[in-house]
Amino acid sequence: MKAVQVVEFNKPYSLLTVPTPSPSPTELLIKIAAASLCHTDFMGLSGVFGVPPPFTASHEGAGTVVKLGSSVKDSAWKIGDRVMCPIVSGRCGTCAECQGPEENRHYCPREDHRGLTKDGAFGEYMLVDADETVLLPDGVSFEVAAPLACAGRTVYRAIKLASLQPGQTICIIGSGGGLGHIGIQFAKNLSLRVIGIDARDTGLALSKEMGADLVLDARKGKEEVVAAIKRFTAPGEKGEVAGAGGADATVNLSDAASAAGLACAVTKMHGVMVQVAQPESVSFPFQEVVFRDVRVRGSLLCSRREAEEMLELVAKGGIEVKKKIVRGLEGVEELVRLTEEGKINGKGVVVL
Q: Would you say the pTM of this structure is higher than 0.90?
């Protein structure tokens, strides 16, 4: 089969012919119909995760079941099922996370991640763990499902962790990116007021298009952005007093060095900042956290049950995934180039 692989760190992907894999007893073999490029793929390409190459890239895939592992019950899966491929693979099943609440099992410290530490979706076929795989509802296409495998799952969980009620305000830093534009729509579906912040003209335009109630340009500086959000959220005429106003929660999707600090600054006193972006280090002024009791928590992916919830929401309609589609694995090179040039509006998707 053909596959796009990392063969050397900090070098371009290679399109190779490799053996078609066979599933272990607990795996499924998926014929990939669509796979997408994620920011994290560039981290894998640079060796951040420490797994030696070669390995097939992309952790965002969707396709059709073509073979069951010997221990997989045909009552659970059947040939021809349409699925969203999971990232998580090989959970130990015995640690505190695996034995704990379902929504935290994907934090198993012994698990692997498809496309980053094991072969992923930029191939004609891909192995997945049967117990982690999610069935696609009717009406959700492969081209939509692939980006949701990471981008959708990640931002859906982050918004849920904010634990807001209808009518409250959530701010999304990096709102016009691959995760952000989906997150705006999830938040609006939950009847939240949404503030979008981006630092690119295309990102600002996409944030408005996706329905953000207020869109702000981060390039105008922290003071101006914070003041605008306080005015937007201020409780009546007293909103300009120190500490008043601010988003009830903020989700930070930006790797920019100042993004986490801005995310804390725009969050109201006693509010929550959910850190999703994965720069080498995350920093913010202590005053924003200590003096204002802003609680910072991290978020990674989501559980299988949450992924099923997300897909049901998408299946009902009203959630749009903006994407640049290329045909065939030969198109991965073009997606990489366009992404590096900042010319992808939404997500880059390969259709096989």
A: yes
